[in-house]
Design goal:
The structure is a homodimer. Chain A is an alpha/beta fold. Chain A has helices at 7-18, 162-170, 209-219, 234-247, 264-271, 307-325, 377-382, and strands spanning 25-29, 42-43, 53-54, 58-61, 75-80, 97-101, 113-116, 120-121, 127-130, 140-141, 152-154, 175-179, 183-189, 193-194, 205-206, 223-230, 250-254, 275-280, 284-285, 291-295, 298-303, 335-340, 344-345, 351-361, 364-369, 385-389, 395-396, 401-406. At the A-B interface, helix 2, strand 15, helix 3, helix 6 and strand 22 of A face helix 2, strand 15, helix 3, helix 6 and strand 22 of B.
Chain lengths: 407, 407
């Protein structure tokens, strides 16, 4: 008989069992790689910028020429020809001279400072009058200031964002090696299930999980494939799981994990060979009858048959598993600070995930537990997120600050 | 001469100009529709569940038979045949009887309550002994409890999540009408630009925005197409913009919006006809030289040429524009509560967006301003998010609580 595991023990077991999952690379245009994971470090082959650039529209000067100047006693500097954007010729200025330079323009040799046009007067006499001293280095980005040659531009394991696409474009890299997407195989079990597109009989219900878990997977950036509804039949489930394991990295079998059911999932995991069942039952609410097993190197998950439980388990546990197999640790999850609209008592010895809706008020966001019996699928659709109530915590107080994980 | 607009004025102008943008529908499988916007209300044609179901593994009883029972004086009830999952036959029980029902199983006619197996003893003598009174309705989800016939399952304008896929599958709807994706056309301008895949000359830089803004668009769920780098040349820019307007819903012209540049973008917007330029300059930092115009019904945006400014303007303003054209108002943006690692002085009369990195500490998340000169692209890549410092606010204090918008 398996002992029910805490959520922290569950994460630890997942870390141990699935951290070193191997995923091949694929090469993608950086514009298509957002959300994907860089599979190797990327270094810059050059200094960025490649030349000293002005950060303002202004006049390139020799800074010491401006020391002590003011509106009353401006520094008078002779105008050299204007610097044009993209002008490749090397320009010079020397003491006593200045040259107009646009934002992003190349600083002429000899200049060490740029004065913003706001502090310059140009009466049209061939001289520019500087009304404010400018320190050395002012308004200049020097060669290599942004990214130095040989510096790391992107670290292996980074989840790429538009920002990284920008950095890579800046260093001239327009394609990137990323880990290929994980693939989730979904199997539904249960004698009472019919396909969602069909009309259920008197005691039948539609198979919701093949849709909702598929959507969860694609929403989290991985691939998914549905392998059909399998009746509560050990042999058929074992064969379907074997087929799914050939194509997919993770198998999710939904239903069949409640004590009252025929409970083929753990038997199937055992029949697939070592290491077999790792976790049978997790002390979370909802989601207690979750099973995690390992067949070869691949996880086989028994998701609760109940759609709400299955989705919560996906968001809490399967996402963590996906991150682990992808080799990433998230620093944070998107959440919002809110305060509770009412008391909520928990105290059930399990970590509870309470669906709440959010209302924007003058005092910040108000988190309201979604009314209705627990486990109704419409409830989860009315929720904006959930509040985690730790095991051993007796509940939440009206007005209490809570972190709402956005779902 | 245009007056610089505040960020709130900018949002207001966007609301007024682009709220009623028409987008055709497309019909998608609900598994592929996450992140898309439902284009019409969806109602349930049936009661969900379609029959009274047990929420536990237990015994269906007539509740009044259990009143007054206890561990010492259990209620003795005659066992009727077990209810099987998906069993379509109508079962009955009457007073003095009980029937085993699994989680999700159909409640037999005559029963109004289910007792969890934990509170039942089955010595195998054909009777079940109930040790705890069970109130009417206990552990039952009644027909229609989840979703009533004719109830709204999904509202028009909802951004679909896996939860909505679940609700729709439950009511037998596996395909959904959603608004087609907006398409962003990107044009880069600037005599100093070379394509990112090329080696820049001495005073040239790579065109970063065609990559980063493209990635921003696809990351935010819209389509994108790049129309090339256009030299600072009014006629060429006008022609390219006209071509882009034929295919795309939004045009983003990056570069050319600084005062020091040739500044063709506003002239091009004016040349495209009424209503023309709506906004020329926004009091935000970075991003001040942003232009928003309207050509026919479509927005033409002048993004700052600077990659960091362009990305921030995308995240703050273009995302808002996209939401507006999609007809949605977001209740919240993903953010994290954190406290400042140091003082930061702002007081520049503009709303400032300060890039910060996040460190997880015992006291919560610490927000650290990313070091380095402002405007370096590597800075934005080192940031986890940004803190908005409102116009007129003098800055942030060490230890102050801030909302970090995740980027």
């Amino acid at each position: 008989m398996f002992e029910v595991k805490s959520i922290d023990e569950t994460f630890h077991i997942i870390d141990q069992a699935f951290s070193n999952y191997y995923l091949e690379d694929e090469f993608l245009d950086i514009r298509q790689a957002v959300g994907r994971i860089a599979s190797s470090d990327i270094f810059s082959k050059e200094d960025i910028p490649g030349f000293d650039r002005s950060t303002v529209d202004g006049y390139a000067v020799v800074s010491s020429d401006t020391f002590g100047c003011s509106g009353t006693y401006p520094a008078q500097l002779e105008l050299s020809p204007e610097i044009l954007m993209g002008d490749e010729a090397v320009r010079f200025i020397s003491t006593g001279k200045a040259a107009y330079v646009p934002t992003g323009g190349r600083i002429p040799e000899g200049s060490d400072s740029v004065v913003m046009i706001e502090y310059c007067e140009d009466p049209g006499d061939g001289y520019i009058y500087i009304e404010k001293p400018s320190a050395p280095g002012s308004n200049i980005i020097f060669k290599g200031d942004d990214i130095r040659k040989d510096a790391q531009a992107v670290k292996a394991g980074t989840v790429l964002r538009p920002q990284e696409a920008g950095v890579l474009a800046a260093i001239g890299i327009t394609g990137v090696n990323v880990k290929r997407k994980l693939r989730l195989g979904i199997i539904s079990t249960g004698d009472e299930l019919v396909e969602a597109g069909k009309i259920p009989g008197a005691a039948q219900i539609r198979d919701v999980n093949s849709y909702s878990i598929y959507a969860e997977a694609t929403n989290y950036g991985i691939g998914a494939r549905f392998f059909g509804i399998v009746r509560d039949n050990f042999k058929e489930l074992l064969e379907t799981t074997k087929i799914a394991l050939q194509e997919c990295d993770i198998i999710a079998i939904s239903g069949g994990s409640s004590v009252g059911n025929r409970d083929e999932t753990p038997e199937v995991i055992t029949a697939l060979g070592e290491p077999g069942v790792l976790i049978h039952g997790i002390s979370i609410k909802p989601g207690k009858p979750t099973i995690i097993g390992k067949a070869g190197k691949k996880p086989v998950i028994g998701l609760p048959g109940h759609p709400v439980s299955a989705m919560i388990v996906f968001k809490i546990i399967v996402r963590y598993l996906i991150d682990t197999m992808n080799g990433i640790k998230r620093k944070y999850n998107p959440s919002l600070n809110a305060y509770m609209s009412e008391n909520y008592s928990s105290n059930n010895g399990r970590t509870e995930y309470l669906p709440v809706s959010l209302v924007n008020t003058d005092k910040g966001f108000l988190a309201q537990p979604v009314p209705g019996k627990s486990g109704l699928i419409a409830t989860l659709s009315r929720a904006d997120g959930y509040v985690e109530i730790k095991r051993g915590c007796e509940g939440l107080l009206k007005g209490q600050n809570v972190d709402v994980m956005i779902i």
